[in-house]
Amino acid sequence: MRILMVAHTFLPETRGGMENHAFNLAQYLMSQGHQVAMFYRFRDRDLEEYQLFEDEWEGMRMFKFVRNYRNPMPTPFPFYDRQAEVVFEGVLDTYQPDLVHFHHLADLSTTLPAAAKRQDLPIMATIHDFWPLCFMSHLRTPDGIVCPGPDEGLRCVECLWKKQMEIYEPVNIRTRARELGAWESIRRAPRFAADWLYARMAAGNAHSTHANLRNEMVALTARNDHMRRVHTEFDVMISPSRFLIEKFAEWGVPESHFRHLCN
User: Cα 183 vs. chain centroid, distance in angstroms?
Assistant: First the structure.
């Protein structure tokens, strides 16, 4: 079987839990006689945006494209990137997989599963975190509270507001100095000055700041419905924990879509 895996990052450029999991799975599948390729994006400011490179690494065929965000999306929650989708469609035509296994869609385009479906390919996903439900990935609020779920995107809007207020809140230097002590306060003086200046600039540009925040809040409510729809289209979804399955089922993805498979 020819299997195409899809992830937002991969080895050797980046190393993390998802990357290691996908690599180990690929090695096992190849040991069983399957062919495995990986499609992912990487950053290189010296290269042209969306440029595709084909290579081989550790027995895997590698399709990687450049995404530097020189032309950023209008919000930090990109659902659709037509150019990334075109690159992906080209890889499908070149590699002609029998199955597409998605590991992560962040910083790609959430329309890639539908693109594979249009070619009548079976699609599956392994869920590595809460990113489909939570734009911050971990279902924790900016102040560290465990979030029970997006509540149709309303709690996401609340988290975004808290997150932005942390960014724009002026620095209280006296309070921070008492907390840190004299020596540490002196060491951090340049950072204090930079934070204070940034807060002043943000306050002076409040109109555009609030306009962007409004757009992002609208995008977050749309994100919730869109992500749920995307993740009901997979033929099967693998979860490393039963708890993760329960949270996705509460969110609205049928439990029958899932298979529990421990890491």
Answer: 39
Query: Using CA atoms, how far apart are residues 260 and 263, in angstroms rounded to an integer?
Result: 10
Phi–psi pair at 186, nearest 5 degrees: -65, -40
For the stretch 171-198, pLDDT in tens is: 455 666 676 677 777 776 666 565 555 5
Instruction: List % helix, strand, coil for the chain (3-state, nearest 5).
Output: 45, 15, 40
Helix or strand (DSSP H, E) at 187: helix 182-187
Strand partners, 60: 57
Contact 18, 103 (CB under 8 A): yes
Residue 147 vs residues 135, 160, 164, 227, 246: alpha-carbon distances, Å: 12, 13, 18, 18, 14
Spatial CB neighbours of 260, under 8 Å, sequence gap ≥ 6: 238, 239, 240, 241, 242, 245
Closest CA to 1 of 85, 86, 124, 111: 124
pLDDT in tens, 30-89: 999 999 999 999 988 889 889 999 999 999 999 999 988 776 655 555 678 888 999 999
